[in-house]
Amino acid sequence: MKIIYAFLxxxxxxxxxxxxxxxxxxxxxxxxxxxNLIGVNIYDKLAQKGAVTNKYGYFSYTSERDSVDLYISYVxxxxxxxxxxxxxxxxxxxxxxxxxxxDEVVVSAEVDQIQETTRMGSINVxxxxxxxxxxxxxxxxxxxxxxxxxxxxSGTEGASGLYVRGGGPDQNLILLDGxxxxxASHLFGxxxxxxxxxxxxxxxxxxxxxxxxxxxxxxxVDVTMREGNMEKVKGEGSIGLISSKVTVEGPLEKEKSSFLxxxxxxxxxxxxxxxxxxxxxxxxxxxxxxYDLNGKVNRKINDKNRLYFSVYGGKDKAYxxxxxxxxxxxxxxxxxxxxxxxxxxxxxxRWNNIINKRLFSNYTxxxxxxxxxLFSFYREDVSGNNETNSLTYSENYFSGIRDWAxxxxxxxxxxxxxxIRFGGNMTFHKFSPGVYVxxxxxxxxxxxxxxxxxxxxxxxxxEDDINFSGKLKANLGLHYSGFITGKKNxxxxxxxxxxxxxxxxxxxxxxxxxxxRQYIHLLTNAxxxxxxxxxxxxxxxxxxxEAMQFGLGAVKNINGFELSIEAYYKNxxxxxxxxxxxxxxxVDQDWQEKVAVGEGRSYGLELLIQKKIGRISxxxxxxxxxxxxxxxxxxxxxxFPYKYDxxxxxxxxxxxxxxxxxxFSLAWVYGTGNAISLPTQMYEAPRSSYSRWAYSNEVRYYExxxxxxxxxxxxxxxSFSWWKTKKWGERKWxxxxxxxxxxxxxxxxxxxxxxxxxxxxxxxxxxxMIPSVTYxxxx
Amino acid sequence: xxxxxxxxxxxxxxxxxxxxxxxLVSCEKEIAWDLPEQSANLVVHADLYNDSIPxxxxxxxxxxxxxxxxxxxxxxxEVILSNNDKTVILKYKEEEGIYFSNDIILExxxxxxxxxxxxxxxxxxSEVVVPKMVPIAEVKFNExxxxxxxxxxxxxxxxxxxxxxxxxxxxxxxxxxREYDYGNGNSGSQELFVYMEPxxxxxxxxxxxxAGIMFNDQLFAGETAKIDLKLSGSFLRGYDHxxxxxxxxxxxxxxxxxxxxxxxxxNTFGLQSYNNGDxxxxxxxxxxxxxxxxxVVTGQSVFSYRFK
Lengths: 779, 308
Known about the structure:
The structure holds two protein chains of two kinds.
Chain A: H1 2-17, E1 22-30, E2 41-44, E3 49-52, E4 58-63, E5 67-73, E6 80-85, E7 90-96, H2 102-105, E8 122-125, H3 127-132, H4 142-146, E9 152-153, E10 163-164, E11 172-176, E12 179-180, E13 185-186, E14 191-192, E15 199-205, E16 219-225, E17 234-239, E18 243-253, E19 257-266, H5 268-279, E20 284-302, E21 305-327, E22 331-356, E23 359-384, E24 387-415, E25 418-440, E26 446-449, E27 453-467, E28 472-485, E29 488-504, E30 507-518, E31 520-523, E32 534-537, E33 545-558, E34 561-578, H6 591-594, E35 595-611, E36 616-631, E37 640-641, E38 648-659, E39 662-671, E40 675-676, E41 681-684, H7 690-693, E42 698-701, E43 708-709, E44 713-725, E45 730-738, E46 748-753, E47 759-765, E48 770-778
Parallel strand pairs in A: 1-7, 11-16
Antiparallel strand pairs in A: 1-4, 2-3, 2-5, 5-6, 8-15, 9-10, 11-12, 13-14, 15-16, 17-18, 17-48, 18-19, 19-20, 20-21, 21-22, 22-23, 23-24, 24-25, 25-26, 25-27, 27-28, 28-29, 29-30, 30-33, 31-32, 33-34, 34-35, 35-36, 36-37, 36-38, 38-39, 39-44, 40-43, 41-42, 44-45, 45-48, 46-47
Chain B: H1 2-25, E1 29-33, E2 42-49, E3 55-60, E4 62-63, E5 78-82, E6 87-93, E7 98-100, E8 110-117, E9 124-130, E10 136-146, E11 152-161, E12 169-183, E13 186-193, E14 196-198, E15 213-216, E16 224-232, E17 246-258, H2 260-275, E18 294-307
Parallel strand pairs in B: 2-18
Antiparallel strand pairs in B: 2-3, 3-7, 5-6, 5-8, 6-7, 8-9, 10-11, 11-16, 12-13, 12-15, 12-17, 14-16, 17-18
């Protein structure tokens, strides 16, 4: 605690030392919709210093001179110049106008150039660019776009889970308007829950984590929703092969408050239902659907206070229904339904308050819920002799997590050489990992499995982005967190350092060191990517996960191209995995008995060449990496490759806007095959006593855990769009081809027999070439 | 109940759901895949019992794609067994498919090395200590009762002293020998093993067939062990519904002191065998203590206690 106290004292000392000059603060918004613009550069040409807007569009800049010459710029918008002389502290509201010249509008992006910032392993992917990338079955996916970045990998084919620098899918802090999303997947992982039409900004951080983030080891994916147009009602929507969506936004009170509602639903179940029912004489009805709904309301109370309320709700359901009837003296009818459903509910109430010209605060109350339910229901009615007897029986296996959280965040900008952030948060978790309930109409419900676990997570942090000189800049911070579970109170102090040295105006060298701690775990099954994975807390027996990561890199900005190279080494401890032979549906056994705890290590080199502006934009990324795990109870305590260890990973994304109303994009990915466990040989068991302990006399021989490599994964996606402006707005057609050269990528491997009864190993794939067409409108 | 439900869920419903999922995307394709060529490994199995001659079984492993029913024995290898005092070369006995030697009697608390030289292979090596025999001090008959299915059960406690300062591993079996007189000078005998269940769930393994229990001394290291068991049937009371015609019946409780290699091999192999076919179960690597080869060399000392 003394360290934290000393650290905070040092921060506030900064204010005492640099409290001279005058301060210009305010916000920067888009002139039409009045949406916040995140990452706008405010540069004082006289002092050759500046500021950047935060994620609420707010900035504060203090000058030690008596006048300023501010250039406010953001790629895709006209730069504004504001000159102020001999002024006192002042607040300004800046509205930036979109640039008419398409050469500059093609990609909007953060303007603080890559070589200037201290951030490492951080990528900001503009939503507009995400929407231009080719989509699977016409459905744009945010997480899939992030998977095209070096160091960010996909899991199995089609899945939208993220595996960042050798970490697991649970090690990503995925935030939607600041609220953690526990399962960001729809359709068993093929799509993410993020509807791109409702989003403002997406940022992913893989290393060099600022202190304000905590609770996960491997990445932060910070997704910010749009707020809604303050000026007039606008809308957009699209009709695709499997889903449609619509977004409407507008003012509730002009320039004071706005709303945004966005909804999406798949309708494969509705389209297929008549055919299935007809083919089964009305007895069978299988189906699947998902929907989600985003909503946001914001209210500007006055120039210093603003309230936001955002909500997300989404659900997936896969089901199979069967009904039938028989007559044998009595009429017997029965209905049978079983399936799987899961969903998230996320809500956040936020209050932005400008306390003074240099201090900005943000208070957030959140509630989130994630649950899945494997359900089965049976009903039987027997009619005869003027009476009907009914029997109902249901079984459910469900798991869930509920969070109630409060956080307070402060941005303090004493002068252009310091940007201090501090704050704290507290979250109450309620875990229900693997509960089994049976019920019939004669007996009360019986409940088995793990009982609910309550825990409290808390954290405080402080960080300062310090400009030591024109060349050396560093972000120094501390993150202190704790987790109360049962009688145990885990605590951790995590130092974070990231620095950059500007070699010349276009080149810098960067280094970072971070430690992270994670108090919750995801128990994953054999890798099928089902939502039945269990979120579980650290307990008195299962310790938290920890990581330490070093990064070293260099960046160069040259003729509109950003080049970066980054090496990293990450050590992880407290990782959990199912022990050999464990099967996750066995509720007789507590989950803590089924897991092994161990360590991991991952290291690699990432290269990225990115072009953000111009008619042709995109990036080429390459990652060379290795990721391993070691657990005493797995692989006889020896190191083994992580399932998603991928030696080579290449991604190429290009968008070309060759005309005022046409664009073309492509994405190509290549990755070394995943590591899986596969027996390669069999041998005879001891004859004398095998039957006492085993059901077979054949031993399957696995050389090691994850001993076998799948074939390499590669795929090319293409997309072509053209649009036309109409009186009422704009309409857009998009043709896309997923997996253009029809590569059969591995989904899973299994042994089987061919027609001649010869045993073979088969690779199963999911997606061949899939063309799609989408019709969209904007008004 | 839930076990039945989940067996049902596992086998049928989740499979259907997965099938639904795959059919939804309706693009499942399968490609036959050639496994990389691998030469067969030498597989050594030897159970070295105290007061017995050594027997070693030597076979080749086969490809996972090989569906032949048998494993090819290695008949022309040089198999050497040694301890500090003696080295013997084992001979191949074709009718049993094993290597053996009558020139040595294995002793408890003695370390033995098994070395195999076979053409085309690096020397294969393993070693094991035949554990010290641990006598059963007492078997107590506790209670009568019945199982969930109303089948008769009997409770016993098996008491023995665990040797201190070493990790010990045990197997308990209950063996019954019956003699029958069919009249007219015809008689016969029958040997059977009684299904047993430990009362302490720590000793219960889900894959255990019930013909024996296997455990280590973690809960009673160096102390007197009291293992409570439930036996199926009414054998200890001198009768059961299947053995009414027997003229004589002998009941033995057998305590095997087994090597760590036995314990680890059968724990992993049992689990692998039990989970075979479950798509949601993690793979199980089976333990081996054979260098440059596969299989297991175990040591066992046997003590038999006759219940009266």
